[in-house]
Write a structure and sequence with these properties.
The protein is α/β, with parallel strands linked by helices. It contains twelve helices and eight strands. Strands 1-4-3-2-5-6-8-7 form an eight-stranded mixed sheet, sandwiched between helices. Helix 4 packs antiparallel against helix 8.
Length: 282
């Protein structure tokens, strides 16, 4: 494997050879930043944890240099932050027993540049070797521009690959912004109730973010519990923890489908449902 950035890194928690490590992939996350995988793609981590026939791969596209910092990290330079965040991501990969971790090391501006083909080519190469059945990424209504940019690069990469290499499912998951506004019959609900100790540990290793001023660990776990409880107003809780997603698979089945219009469709249908409910009671 030859990626565009000479500073890109790989990590395999059990020291398996590279070709074996990536080739055993069944579930994959393509995330913008270190810790995004652990927030949005715990469904895949949980499904693969402790299994011999299911393996999780994480691909982190950016280097994390611009993250906010406080406490002991307050005086860290961007270079310091890149180093510590890579180390934290490797810790998470070890705790979660990821079959393969790739950190592509792009600047956020490079990913948001619609003319920059390098991330697309890197993703095509990794996916061609891994051939995952399921890929989790950021949803296209996410509030973070870099998150949306990563999802778009991924969709471009998948559209350019032969159909037999594309995953069976592509999901866009929550990080910045909830998906509770999506119509209930269109929500993808991931039951992430298993191994709560691992879920907590995975989020807890990102000390530069937590002690640096952002309690992503508490917020992510609280959001999952909130999703599980508020999923239905008329039934008892089925799950103790849930992540919400939207199905992006149609976008890689039809290369000509307009991406913005696809997401707008979710918004329009939700708007129509709300208006219809109100109008019935006026």
């Amino acid at each position: 494997m030859k990626l565009n950035k000479s500073t890109a890194e790989y990590f395999v928690f059990d020291n398996a050879p590279l070709d074996k490590a990536i080739g055993r992939t069944t579930h994959m996350a393509v995330a913008a930043h270190q810790d995004d995988t652990e927030i949005m793609a715990y469904d895949g981590i949980q499904k693969c944890f402790g299994k011999e026939d299911l393996w999780f791969t994480a691909v982190v596209v950016t280097n994390g240099a611009g993250s906010p910092r406080n406490g002991i990290y307050q005086k860290y330079t961007d270079e310091d932050m890149k180093r510590i965040r890579k180390m934290e991501q490797k810790k998470a990969a070890f705790v979660g027993e990821y079959g393969f971790l790739a950190m592509l090391d792009y600047e956020s501006a490079e990913v948001k540049d619609k003319h920059n083909r390098e991330p697309v080519e890197d993703l095509k190469q990794i996916i061609s070797m891994a051939r995952p059945k399921v890929i989790y990424t950021h949803n296209l209504a996410d509030k973070h521009n870099t998150h949306v940019a990563v999802a778009l690069k991924l969709i471009s990469a998948l559209r350019e690959l032969p159909e037999e290499i594309r995953p069976e499912k592509l999901y866009g998951c929550e990080v910045w912004g909830k998906l509770d506004w999506v119509k209930d019959d269109e929500k993808v609900v991931f039951n992430v109730s298993d191994h709560p100790n691992i879920a907590q540990s995975l989020l807890g290793v990102f000390d530069s973010q937590i002690c640096g001023g952002k309690r992503y660990d508490q917020a992510a776990l609280g959001n999952r519990q909130s999703n599980a409880t508020f999923l239905s107003a008329y039934n008892v809780d089925v799950y103790s923890s849930a992540i919400l997603g939207m199905d992006l698979t149609p976008l890689i089945r039809n290369e000509n489908m307009d991406i913005a219009e696809y997401i707008k469709g979710y918004i329009d249908r939700f708007s129509e449902e709300v208006s219809e409910k109100i109008n019935k009671m006026i």
